[in-house]
Amino acid sequence: MISSGYDAEGMIRSILGNIEYKVLESKQVFYRCSCRERMERALISLGKKDLREIIQEQGSAELVCHFCSKKYFFFKDELIKLLEKASVNI
Ligand SMILES: [Zn+2]
After folding, report:
1. What is the pTM of this model?
2. Category of 7 on φ-ψ map: left (φ > 0), alpha (ψ -120 to 50) or beta
């Protein structure tokens, strides 16, 4: 129905046919990916050892979110902050 161009009310009207209804409230909805936080958690979960290696060998990190395909770049100082949150894994 969405690909046919129906909006929310158009769908309701189409499904309900002649049944009467009343719109109580309408809200603008949008998709927002919380991937920046997810990317940070992924880096933290690598643990101190791997994070330290990334910092020393690459100096920065670029990650791509699998949900929205957005690219995230982490600078060295940001990686160092995440390193402090990571757990020790020698
Ligand atoms: Zn995302």
Report:
1. 0.61
2. beta
| Interval between CA 71 and ligand 1 midpoint (Å) | 8
Give residue-wise pLDDT tens across range 6-27: 988 899 999 999 999 898 998 8
Give 69-77 contacts, CB < 8 A, sequence gap 24+: 70/33, 70/35, 72/35, 72/36, 72/39, 74/39, 74/43
pLDDT at residue 48, as a whole number: 94
44 vs 38: CA distance, rounded Å: 10
List the domains of the chain with CATH numbers. 8-85 (3.90.1280.10)
Segments in the chain forming alpha helices (H): 8-16, 35-45, 48-57, 76-85
How far does the centroid of ligand 1 lie from the alpha carbon of residue 31, in Å? Answer: 10
Type of residue found at 38: R
